[in-house]
Design goal:
By secondary structure, this protein is an alpha+beta fold. The protein has two domains: about 5-145, Fructose-1,6-Bisphosphatase, subunit A, domain 1 (Fructose-1,6-Bisphosphatase, Chain A, domain 1), CATH 3.30.540; about 155-260, D-Maltodextrin-Binding Protein, domain 2. Helix content is about 35%, strand content about 30%. Strand 8 and strand 9 (about 140-145) form a beta hairpin. Helix 1 (about 5-25) runs antiparallel to helix 2 and helix 5 (about 195-200) runs parallel beside helix 6. The longest helix is centred in the N-terminal third of the chain and has 21 residues, at about 5-25. The radius of gyration is 17 Å and the shape is globular.
Length: about 260
Amino acid sequence: MDTHTRIAIEAAKASGAVLNRYFLGRASNFRKYKGKNDLVTGADLESCRVIKKHLKRVFPDYNYLFEENEFSEDNGSKYLWIIDPLDGTTFHNRGLPFFSSLITLQIHDQTEMGLAYCPFTDDLFVSWRGKGSFHWNHRFHVRKRLAVSKTRKLDQALIGYSYGKTESHLQQCGALIKRLLPYCRAFTRVAGSDIGYLASGACDAFLDNSSTPWDFAGIALMVREAGGLVTDFEGREWNLRSRSILASNKILHGRILRLIRMN
């Protein structure tokens, strides 16, 4: 394991301890809304501080891009850490265990490593460019290489989704679900962890109409390294500037895209 990955995992585990402390009610968690569906809490901010402290100790001159912008830094480096300290804030805030920390490393604008850590379940998903994606869980003695599902029929597909952060995102997502639901088996909503489960084959596709770098930079690498396909809603290869994201096992991708783009 290279130094970047080792330190990122240490940072994610430290963040996980913070998130679990708030989740279990052992710390007071203030809340405020940046938008209709855009919640920030004390757990978010403390997780930011903990992750940045761990990374800065070893990589002080790197660039940092956090979901909470006050923690971001541009130091003119070719190395960029992209961090979502708490993916699934609403679930975490309501006492549901579907939350994770996401940490991604880019070098020269190329995503080299991405991880998602789900502290309540101790699921750790890690991917490296050209080297595959992996799932580790020490609690349940899991250590395996990931591969997307082989589901061929949309009526057997389990699809994850996110509902965006604004009223228009929410309305568009509702329309998409209404359009897709008659054709698939079920929808699931379990925050960042469902992308790890997509890469592992437990879930068949994921869509989000309000894509952001901190949510999906590492996740896109993870799904691709597991054999999947990641595009925007127009079918273009997903990148940090994309406004939407569809990730799938490739087999279902074209059909889901056609349904998304129906007028």
